[in-house]
Hints:
Blueprint: E1 2-5, H1 10-21, E2 29-32, H2 42-47, E3 55-57, E4 63-64, H3 67-78, H4 88-117, H5 125-145, H6 147-150, H7 155-170, H8 181-191, H9 194-198
Parallel strand pairs: 1-2
Antiparallel strand pairs: 1-3, 3-4
Bound molecules: glutathione.
Amino acid sequence: MKLHGDIISPFVRMCLVTAQEVGLGGKVEQVQTRADPTTVNQTLSALSPVGKVPVLVTDHNHPLYDSRVIIEYLCHVSGNKTLIPDDGVKRFRVLTLQALGQAIAEAGVAFRYETAVRPQGLQWREWIARHELRVKAEFDDLEKTWAKDLSELTSGSIAVAVALSYLDFRIPDWQWRKDRPLLQAFHDAFSRRPSMQATALKPA
Ligand SMILES: N[C@@H](CCC(=O)N[C@@H](CS)C(=O)NCC(=O)O)C(=O)O
Protein backbone atom coordinates (compact mmCIF):
# COMPACT_ATOMS: atom_id res chain seq x y z
CA MET A 1 0.00 0.00 0.00
CA LYS A 2 1.20 3.50 -0.72
CA LEU A 3 0.31 6.45 1.47
CA HIS A 4 0.72 9.76 -0.32
CA GLY A 5 1.51 12.71 1.90
CA ASP A 6 3.95 14.61 4.04
CA ILE A 7 4.36 13.52 7.64
CA ILE A 8 4.04 17.13 8.84
CA SER A 9 0.36 16.87 7.92
CA PRO A 10 -1.40 15.69 11.09
CA PHE A 11 -3.86 13.75 8.94
CA VAL A 12 -1.03 11.84 7.26
CA ARG A 13 0.64 11.16 10.59
CA MET A 14 -2.63 9.86 12.11
CA CYS A 15 -2.67 7.24 9.33
CA LEU A 16 0.99 6.32 9.81
CA VAL A 17 0.58 5.97 13.58
CA THR A 18 -2.50 3.81 13.00
CA ALA A 19 -0.61 1.62 10.52
CA GLN A 20 2.07 0.99 13.16
CA GLU A 21 -0.47 0.30 15.89
CA VAL A 22 -2.37 -2.30 13.84
CA GLY A 23 0.84 -4.03 12.74
CA LEU A 24 0.86 -2.75 9.17
CA GLY A 25 3.81 -0.38 9.55
CA GLY A 26 5.94 -2.50 7.21
CA LYS A 27 3.19 -2.73 4.58
CA VAL A 28 2.43 0.97 4.22
CA GLU A 29 4.98 2.81 2.15
CA GLN A 30 4.92 6.57 2.55
CA VAL A 31 5.27 8.41 -0.75
CA GLN A 32 6.44 11.98 -0.18
CA THR A 33 3.67 14.08 -1.75
CA ARG A 34 3.14 17.71 -0.91
CA ALA A 35 -0.22 19.41 -0.96
CA ASP A 36 -0.27 23.16 -1.16
CA PRO A 37 -3.46 25.18 -0.72
CA THR A 38 -2.65 27.48 -3.66
CA THR A 39 -1.15 25.14 -6.29
CA VAL A 40 -2.43 21.97 -7.94
CA ASN A 41 -0.31 18.84 -7.44
CA GLN A 42 -0.99 16.76 -10.56
CA THR A 43 -0.01 13.43 -8.92
CA LEU A 44 -2.47 14.07 -6.14
CA SER A 45 -5.22 15.35 -8.40
CA ALA A 46 -4.96 12.20 -10.49
CA LEU A 47 -5.66 10.18 -7.34
CA SER A 48 -8.30 12.36 -5.72
CA PRO A 49 -10.54 15.17 -6.92
CA VAL A 50 -10.18 16.67 -3.43
CA GLY A 51 -6.45 17.19 -4.05
CA LYS A 52 -5.51 16.88 -0.37
CA VAL A 53 -3.24 14.49 1.52
CA PRO A 54 -3.41 11.78 2.69
CA VAL A 55 -4.45 9.41 -0.10
CA LEU A 56 -3.87 5.68 0.36
CA VAL A 57 -3.48 3.60 -2.81
CA THR A 58 -4.39 0.04 -1.85
CA ASP A 59 -2.65 -3.09 -3.13
CA HIS A 60 -5.59 -3.39 -5.53
CA ASN A 61 -4.83 0.10 -6.80
CA HIS A 62 -7.87 1.84 -5.30
CA PRO A 63 -7.25 5.35 -4.02
CA LEU A 64 -8.85 5.98 -0.60
CA TYR A 65 -9.31 9.29 1.17
CA ASP A 66 -9.71 11.05 3.60
CA SER A 67 -7.72 10.15 6.74
CA ARG A 68 -10.79 8.80 8.59
CA VAL A 69 -11.54 6.39 5.75
CA ILE A 70 -7.89 5.33 5.53
CA ILE A 71 -7.76 4.68 9.29
CA GLU A 72 -10.92 2.59 9.11
CA TYR A 73 -9.49 0.69 6.14
CA LEU A 74 -6.25 -0.08 8.02
CA CYS A 75 -8.26 -1.40 10.97
CA HIS A 76 -10.41 -3.43 8.59
CA VAL A 77 -7.57 -5.12 6.66
CA SER A 78 -5.58 -5.85 9.81
CA GLY A 79 -8.62 -7.26 11.62
CA ASN A 80 -8.15 -4.76 14.46
CA LYS A 81 -11.35 -4.34 16.49
CA THR A 82 -10.10 -2.10 19.27
CA LEU A 83 -9.00 1.15 17.62
CA ILE A 84 -12.57 1.61 16.34
CA PRO A 85 -14.68 -0.73 18.49
CA ASP A 86 -17.79 -2.42 17.09
CA ASP A 87 -19.85 -2.01 20.25
CA GLY A 88 -22.35 0.81 19.74
CA VAL A 89 -21.86 3.04 22.79
CA LYS A 90 -18.09 2.70 22.77
CA ARG A 91 -17.82 3.07 19.01
CA PHE A 92 -19.57 6.42 18.84
CA ARG A 93 -17.72 7.76 21.86
CA VAL A 94 -14.42 6.85 20.15
CA LEU A 95 -15.55 8.35 16.83
CA THR A 96 -16.59 11.56 18.59
CA LEU A 97 -13.20 11.79 20.28
CA GLN A 98 -11.60 11.20 16.88
CA ALA A 99 -13.71 14.04 15.44
CA LEU A 100 -12.49 16.28 18.26
CA GLY A 101 -8.85 15.45 17.49
CA GLN A 102 -9.49 16.01 13.79
CA ALA A 103 -11.15 19.36 14.52
CA ILE A 104 -8.07 20.52 16.45
CA ALA A 105 -5.88 19.44 13.54
CA GLU A 106 -8.17 21.22 11.06
CA ALA A 107 -8.06 24.42 13.09
CA GLY A 108 -4.28 24.20 13.35
CA VAL A 109 -3.79 23.65 9.63
CA ALA A 110 -6.29 26.41 8.73
CA PHE A 111 -4.60 28.82 11.16
CA ARG A 112 -1.22 27.96 9.69
CA TYR A 113 -2.42 28.58 6.11
CA GLU A 114 -3.99 31.86 7.12
CA THR A 115 -1.00 33.19 9.07
CA ALA A 116 2.00 31.67 7.25
CA VAL A 117 0.79 31.28 3.66
CA ARG A 118 -1.82 34.01 3.11
CA PRO A 119 -0.38 37.47 2.27
CA GLN A 120 -0.49 39.69 5.38
CA GLY A 121 -2.83 42.33 3.99
CA LEU A 122 -5.42 39.66 3.17
CA GLN A 123 -5.51 37.97 6.59
CA TRP A 124 -8.83 37.99 8.40
CA ARG A 125 -8.44 38.82 12.10
CA GLU A 126 -11.93 37.79 13.23
CA TRP A 127 -11.58 34.44 11.50
CA ILE A 128 -8.22 33.81 13.19
CA ALA A 129 -9.71 34.82 16.57
CA ARG A 130 -12.63 32.43 16.05
CA HIS A 131 -10.21 29.55 15.51
CA GLU A 132 -8.33 30.44 18.67
CA LEU A 133 -11.58 30.46 20.66
CA ARG A 134 -12.66 27.19 19.12
CA VAL A 135 -9.46 25.33 20.00
CA LYS A 136 -9.50 26.72 23.52
CA ALA A 137 -12.99 25.23 24.01
CA GLU A 138 -11.74 21.96 22.52
CA PHE A 139 -8.69 21.81 24.84
CA ASP A 140 -10.90 22.56 27.87
CA ASP A 141 -13.39 19.87 26.91
CA LEU A 142 -10.59 17.31 26.50
CA GLU A 143 -9.31 18.16 29.99
CA LYS A 144 -12.76 18.10 31.57
CA THR A 145 -14.56 15.17 29.97
CA TRP A 146 -12.25 12.90 28.01
CA ALA A 147 -9.43 11.80 30.37
CA LYS A 148 -10.74 8.25 30.78
CA ASP A 149 -11.30 7.77 27.04
CA LEU A 150 -7.85 9.17 26.30
CA SER A 151 -6.29 6.51 28.53
CA GLU A 152 -7.26 3.86 25.94
CA LEU A 153 -5.54 3.32 22.61
CA THR A 154 -8.21 4.13 20.02
CA SER A 155 -8.53 6.10 16.80
CA GLY A 156 -9.72 8.89 19.13
CA SER A 157 -6.65 9.03 21.33
CA ILE A 158 -4.41 8.74 18.24
CA ALA A 159 -6.14 11.72 16.59
CA VAL A 160 -5.84 13.88 19.73
CA ALA A 161 -2.18 12.98 20.39
CA VAL A 162 -1.16 13.67 16.80
CA ALA A 163 -3.12 16.93 16.62
CA LEU A 164 -1.50 18.23 19.83
CA SER A 165 1.96 17.26 18.56
CA TYR A 166 1.23 19.20 15.36
CA LEU A 167 0.43 22.28 17.47
CA ASP A 168 3.69 21.85 19.41
CA PHE A 169 5.51 21.83 16.09
CA ARG A 170 3.69 24.65 14.28
CA ILE A 171 1.76 26.80 16.78
CA PRO A 172 3.39 26.55 20.23
CA ASP A 173 1.81 29.93 21.11
CA TRP A 174 -1.54 28.16 21.57
CA GLN A 175 -0.13 26.68 24.80
CA TRP A 176 -2.61 23.82 25.05
CA ARG A 177 -0.79 22.45 28.16
CA LYS A 178 -1.44 25.54 30.31
CA ASP A 179 -3.73 24.60 33.26
CA ARG A 180 -4.52 21.24 31.65
CA PRO A 181 -2.50 18.67 33.64
CA LEU A 182 -4.55 15.64 32.55
CA LEU A 183 -4.16 16.46 28.88
CA GLN A 184 -0.46 17.03 29.34
CA ALA A 185 -0.04 13.69 31.17
CA PHE A 186 -1.93 11.92 28.39
CA HIS A 187 0.24 13.47 25.69
CA ASP A 188 3.51 12.80 27.54
CA ALA A 189 2.66 9.12 27.91
CA PHE A 190 1.24 8.71 24.41
CA SER A 191 4.26 10.37 22.81
CA ARG A 192 6.46 7.61 24.21
CA ARG A 193 4.64 4.96 22.15
CA PRO A 194 6.88 3.43 19.45
CA SER A 195 4.31 4.46 16.80
CA MET A 196 4.71 8.12 17.80
CA GLN A 197 8.49 7.88 18.12
CA ALA A 198 8.78 6.28 14.68
CA THR A 199 6.80 9.14 13.13
CA ALA A 200 8.18 12.01 15.22
CA LEU A 201 8.38 15.39 13.49
CA LYS A 202 11.87 16.75 13.08
CA PRO A 203 12.55 20.48 12.95
CA ALA A 204 13.61 21.48 9.38
N1 LIG B 1 -10.33 15.95 6.14
C1 LIG B 1 -9.08 15.68 5.47
C2 LIG B 1 -8.14 16.87 5.65
C3 LIG B 1 -6.86 16.73 4.83
C4 LIG B 1 -6.10 18.04 4.75
O1 LIG B 1 -6.60 19.10 5.08
N2 LIG B 1 -4.87 17.94 4.26
C5 LIG B 1 -4.07 19.14 4.04
C6 LIG B 1 -2.67 18.94 4.55
S1 LIG B 1 -2.63 18.93 6.30
C7 LIG B 1 -3.98 19.40 2.55
O2 LIG B 1 -3.84 18.47 1.79
N3 LIG B 1 -4.05 20.67 2.13
C8 LIG B 1 -3.94 21.07 0.77
C9 LIG B 1 -5.03 21.98 0.34
O3 LIG B 1 -5.74 22.53 1.19
O4 LIG B 1 -5.17 22.14 -0.88
C10 LIG B 1 -8.47 14.38 6.03
O5 LIG B 1 -8.81 14.03 7.16
O6 LIG B 1 -7.72 13.70 5.32
